Amino acid sequence: AVVSTQSTGIEEFMLKANVSVAEKLVKHYPDNAIIRRHVGPKENVLKDTKKVLERMGIEVDTTSSKMMQEALNKLQHAPNQPTPVGLVVASLLAKCMSLATYHSSGEFDSPVDYFHYGLSMELYTHFTSPIRRYPDLIAHRQLQAILEGEKTGPMDFDEVSELAELSSQKKYASKLASDKSGELFLWLFLREQVAMHEPASVIEIGSESIDVLVLRYGVQVRIWRDYIGEKVEFQVKEKQWAHITWPAEDGKPKCSKRYELLDNIVVIMKAGKQLFKINGSLPRPDSVNDLNVPTIEGFASEDV
Question: Where are the alpha helices (DSSP H) in 152-273?
Fold first, then answer.
């Protein structure tokens, strides 16, 4: 708890430092200060996600990032609330968000356009990590110029704008590389396994499939009815529930299970033949107790 408190305090000071520097840069160099901007999610995407959450019985105020964060905090700390619910909601909302980008302040007609949606801040920049981010170096050089009394700054509008755009592109490329590296590692890992049984939560039900969030890895996997079994009966009330029946086999009688949104279940993960492709399936409900399933705090499978 002490480490968590210290980390939170340090983060708060870093945010305040970034905001203070941003204000000073824009005040002295209104046309060419380096800023960090984050636009809000697209309305249609956020609206669709809100509908998915409502089908799960979850109400989230999406009027601002602050309200969404407060809703997440309540879900994660609510008494008798399964831990994975917060993970599921956070994962769905994260996919609505765009990436923050760097800009020269002179690119915009109004200070209103400087707004950083994710942090709910009117003005923001990156200043505190010059050892790992080039935009921070620009902010340091601009602040130094201000302290030394320079009227125009070390870079003009075109230079700052060009470097800001390049920095945004490189930031996106590094994120993409990181994401793909994680996906590739998981695919290669699964390829070495016969199969893995993982805790998951149901996040969407379609006419021919069930989408789940695999909790240990934070990845979404689509389970097609064909991957569950050729003789399996798959009855669906789209977007609400799926009722699956397995035939009698290997001395086991016929069995069935109904899957609903936010159900905690066990899924079977295998590497597909195509690079990055992960295939998902469902075990027979009468065999789940015999499987070696990782333990996750707050997770209680309806299968068990």
Answer: 157-191, 225-228
pTM value surpassing 0.85: no
Strand order in the sheet with 209-214: 219-224, 209-214, 196-205, 264-271, 278-281
Rounded to 5, what percent of the chain is helix, strand, coil?
45, 20, 35
In angstroms, the CA 297 to CA 112 distance is: 43
* Helix runs in 192-277, H state only: 225-228
What backbone torsions phi and psi does residue 53 show, to the nearest 5 degrees?
A: -65, -40
**Alpha carbons within 13 A on the beta-carbon side of 206:** 10
> Which residues lie below 8 Å from residue 175, measured CB to CB, with a gap of 6+?
99
φ, ψ of residue 219 to 5 degrees: the values are: -110, 150
User: Are 117 and 40 contacting, i.e. CB atoms less than 8 angstroms apart?
Assistant: yes
Per-residue pLDDT for the chain (304 aa), expressed as one digit of tens each? 333 344 578 889 999 999 999 999 999 999 999 999 999 888 888 888 888 888 888 888 888 888 888 888 888 776 666 557 888 888 888 888 899 999 999 999 999 999 999 999 999 999 999 999 999 999 999 999 999 999 988 999 999 999 999 999 999 999 999 999 999 999 999 999 888 999 999 988 988 999 999 988 889 999 999 999 888 999 988 778 999 999 998 888 999 999 998 888 999 999 999 999 999 999 998 888 877 777 665 555 554 3
Is residue 298 within 8 A of residue 84, CB to CB? The reply is yes
The H-or-E segment that residue 236 falls in is strand 233-237
